[in-house]
Write a structure and sequence with these properties.
With about 110 residues, this protein is mainly β. It is about 0% helix and about 55% strand.
Length: about 110
Amino acid sequence: MDKDTLVIGSKEGSLCIVEGKSGKILQSFELFDKEISSVALSNNTCQYLAIAEAKKRIILMETDGWKIIAKNWTYHNARITSVDFSPDNKFLMSASLDNFVYFWNL
């Protein structure tokens, strides 16, 4: 996984990993039955991928082997609008229409 790789979440809950230069689909996953509302790659190393579902759940994956290391993190009471990693990759932050931002310790 490198910085030329695109991560695309769909309205149907699927996730595609796409090679940026060629457009070739490298991986495809069916993760949720609802819309993926946000995705984020960890900084610099692209070691982690966070995926948020519109219905308040978050999955964390390792990009080496695409292993799910945390799934169904839930705490928000409304649609998750954004996920992102802290600059040092020690925390994942999630924001929601419930007006809260949560910090998840990695």
